[in-house]
Amino acid sequence: PDPTPDPIPTPDPVPTPDSPPTPAPDPISTPAPVPTPVEPEASDTTPDGEGLAPFLTFGSLKTVTYPGSTSKLTLDFCSDGRSQRVEIREATIAASPSSGVLIEGDFLTVPRSSGTILLTATWNGYTATKEIFVKPTADQIALSMLSSYRRYTPGAAEETTLYVFDSSRFHGQDYTVTWSVDDPTFLTLEPKEENGEHSVRFTALRPGIGVVTCRVTAPDGSYSENYCTVCFLK
Known about the structure:
Helix content is about 0%, strand content about 45%. The chain is built from no helices and 18 strands. It starts with about 55 loop residues before the first strand and ends with a strand.
């Protein structure tokens, strides 16, 4: 009999290809939050790096007056580029011992004798000082501006003019005029003389406060001074 044929081999099963992985969706990027603008904190540093901390000040740091005169006192607190009036009754005012000064409310009366008076004001932990020079009218000179408070901008400038009235013993004399500032890093001075009139232009180099002094000197060497308080706030 014919031999029984070998059984037909069962073919290996065709492997089912792996299904391609489903790609994960790209993550939805959350936009970064837009920061809310924040006002910069006030700095005590001026553009040139010099410090300018908050301070208390009298309206004028140095004044000249005649014996027995009465004038109004003013106090200001300067901070963050602004000036705030301080009520005199809220501050403590003290005068140099034996000065004979009378303070009633906002008004100050000086004694009927010549001399120098130092005032000190304290308020909320801040202190201010002021010098008052009491002298007869005949020994005085005058300025067109005795105080200036304004905001600082580069090149900001002001001007004051000297007056020598006929009531002054310097009137009609061949006097000389000099101008100075207590802090040359704060102001530059440009003295001018035109048709016998003396004035000075002062330009701010930075925010700050200082005193411009005008001195008139007679041929005999005697002199008189007056003062202009200058404040440029940042």
